[in-house]
Amino acid sequence: MGIPVELLFEAVLFGILLGGFYAAVSAGLSVSFGLLDVPHVAHPAIMVFGSYCTWGLVRAGLDPIVAGLLLMPPFFLLGMAVYRFYYETFEKRGAEAGVRGIAFFFGVALIIEVGLILGFGVDQRIVEASYIGKSLSIGGDLRVPLRTLVVFCVAVLITVVLTLYMSKTFTGRAIKAVAQDEPALRLMGVNPVRIKQWAFGIATAIAALGGALLIIIGPVEPAMDRAYIGRTFAVVVLAGLGSMTGTVAAGMILGISESVVLMHPGLGASWAPAVSFALLLLVLGVRPQGLFGR
Amino acid sequence: MQGTTRSLLHIVARALGAVCAALLIAGGAFAQQPIKIGMSMPQTGSLGAGGKAELVALRMWVDDVNAKGGLLGRKVELIAYDDQTNPALTPGIYTKLLDVDKVDLLFAPYGTVPTAPIMPLVKQRGLLLMGNFSFQVNHTVKHDMWFNNLPAPDAESWFAGFFEQGQKVGAKSIAFLAADQEFAQNLANGAKELAKKAGMQTVYSQNYPPATTDFSSLIRAIRAAKPDMVFVCSYPNDSVAIVRAMNEIGVGDGVKLFGGGMVGLQFTPIMESLGSMLNGIVNYNSYVPGVKYPGIDEFLVRYQKKAAEEKVDPLGFYLPPFGYAMGQMLEQAVNGTKSIDQKKLAEYLHTHTMQTIVGPISYNKDGEWAQPRMLMIQFRGIADKNLDQWRQPGKQVVLYPPAYKTGDAVMPFDKARGK
Fold first, then answer.
1. Residues of A in contact with B44 (CB under 8 A)
2. ipTM here
């Protein structure tokens, strides 16, 4: 059983928008895991924390996107503090830091989850905004949900700003350098720990904005981070560690494959996650370094 | 003088003896072990919101029983662990409850998915299990000591009202969208049988994976199939996403009825947040304001006070009254048999009608309600951001069953939504 061309086109369009969302929620991880090699499994939990903070600010009368932008500075500081603690207690101590680091970040995720339950309860939280629940009619039968369009635009903006920052500023280039050759950076008189701390702050700030996008897309609850650990790591690995352009491309691949499988009448929609991850395996089989990895 | 002293000593000695005897009796009673009731409850995860609200109601029942002197003169203690809505955890939790905590009686966790894995355990050990809003988990296990508090034993009693409305307006085709997990699949399969009996043609049927992010593609595919009715079986997070996508993408102006088995549209925070997006949807519910049961109004006043303190569902219409009723049934069985013997309790529950705050409940041989009372309602005239509107009758018009009917469905779907 095939899929009509018109529907296929719409499935791809919805997939591109969904892919933008996946790229946005993975962009922070692309910095922390992709560039800094920190096994940051608490990234989705920080994002969910950002969603709850957004929910609080929306209740105070702010738009979710504005709320997400306002949350970036405090989350930047939070990220710097978390990295410093991680560095002092784990990374500084050497070879087993990676494995123990995973345990550390699982602990952070659990603390955030329990904190959210104690602070907000377990009810699903939803935000309202002028672009949620409405669509943009683009001739004929084609209607595009405004919330996914808004999220896609923010995702593109994050990618552009982050790419420019990494390539045009001294700190951005230093972050890329610390990922490639830390001793060389040290020889040039730059403190790699401070650079990593700064980069982790940026990753956390982006996670806060990602949290705002998450609650725009759908309801959140404290344990929602678990559903995003696999997805965000898959996007970052598929992209090629640390590649911002790759993150968008990988998000699109997952988004489009998910959307097409969901809409296709002949394929079981239940296969959507399996198809996405099979694609991930396939790409890694051909290019182990990921789509845009070197 | 000596005689006076002696008689005084005699009196003091007698008084001391009486006090000691009283203390011994009181001490004996005090030393009696409490009756422990164990359960797991989803307190986090997708069913956590409902589970926590119901736990408030169950604790109210425990407090009420203890205020009356307990059961058989023993205090009641409720031990509840969080199963995280994870079916893989429940067998372990119930084994711990039985073998480590040594509980006397069991309540099932809220929901089909967490309950299904413990059915073999309770059957194997011959234990009474008070079911908690589970759908057909005893259907194949056939445990004769299972008693569910869900007011619908099968898909027919659950959704007869939905299909009846569709038939009234001559619906000929139907689309099915269901979550790919046990509860939704059981319901959807039952609903498919009902559709077949009603002579409806299935033009679309899709099972979506749990944790689906966006439903735009699925809703668009439903619109392309041009059904007369859309039947959805979903869990809370999905229900919200589906309602949003339905509002954005649309299901087509040929659709007469949309809804059916969407879990979550009964939870106050979700209803409040979705607001006017709910208008026109026809969905099941267990209780709505305006339905009269003895004692439920008083219960809800007390519950709502506690719910505000515990940050759970502020109105608590859906699950909490049925959780409290589950306790009431156990209480009547224990008092009726003057025992906590599991077999005697099961026999009592099979042969008596229980009086509860959700009305009288009697059981069929499978431990399901002999007289089902699941409501089919239509959301009407819902405004955005207004919690108080949900306290009034009329916002959820009861279409079915006839005994509780408060109005007819407005169809087609677009008309019901005011478009």
1. 113, 117, 122, 221-223
2. 0.86
